[in-house]
Amino acid sequence: MPNESGLRQCDCGSYIKLKDMIDIAEDENSNLPRLSQIPGHLLQDCIKQSKDEDMEVLARFAYWRHANHEYREIYKAHREAEERENQMIWDSWQKETQSWWKRTLRLPTPAYARSATSRFTVPPFEPSDLQIENMTILSDKLLSLQKKSPKSYALDLAELYRELGSFEDAQVQISKVPESEAGNTSRVITEYIEKRETALIRFRM
Fold first, then answer.
1. Which of 52, 46, 122, 44 is nearest to 83 (CA)?
2. What is the pLDDT at residue 19?
3. Which of 29, 78, 132, 176 could form a disulfide with 123 if both were Cys (CB 3.0 to 4.6 A apart)?
4. What is the bridge-based pairing of β-strands 35-36 and 7-10?
């Protein structure tokens, strides 16, 4: 599961927040329950069993990232296939345009480098009803939390709204990102908002 969720599952089946734990001592022979990362198929159960809103928000964040992972694999395969096609076109062009004197002197063929004019497409992003429900509830909760701190969660909200196709709301949120926190991620999100593109982007939030 991409990114740290801040949640763990106990051997007893319950879910806990790491920040609620207290480190008392270490005992190798202890029979205390062990903690493990929550597998993706249990995140919906974690959401339902959340003890408070903070835990629910963490669980919904984790589910959002987990559910998007399948698309990222589709994206990766799509881009690799298209890039192979781009290289085949480039190789063909090199053979056709290689001059007589280059062939005569037997100069090596230049290494492939992707051109700015090369074809670049992304597969459509079609979230399930469950994904849409989770992103909608998560964005509503983050927006409520943002009222206490106007610039908090701005980047997360911008990306959630963008994936949901709410580009105006996404634009409002991306404009709240402090300049000190702006970077490549916010730049790419802004670019996709302007393109009215909901497809997922391969970056770490």
1. 122
2. 86
3. 78
4. antiparallel
- Which stretches of the chain are assigned E, i.e. beta strand? 7-10, 15-17, 35-36
Which tokens hold the place of 72? Answer: 């990222």
In the chain, how many domains are there? 1
Q: What whole-number distance in Å separates Cα of residue 22 and Cα of residue 122?
A: 45
Within 13 Å of residue 79, how many CA atoms lie on the same side as its CB?
13
Position with higher pLDDT, 164 vs 5: 164
What percent of the chain lies above the pLDDT cut of 70? 83
pLDDT in tens, 29-88: 566 667 888 999 999 999 999 999 999 999 999 999 999 988 888 888 888 898 888 888
Give a yes or no: residue 190 inside a domain.
yes
Residue 138 forms part of a structural domain: yes
Q: Which residues contact 7 (CB under 8 A, 6 or more apart)?
A: 15, 16, 17, 18, 38, 46, 55, 58, 59, 62
What range defines the domain where residue 190 resides? 129-194
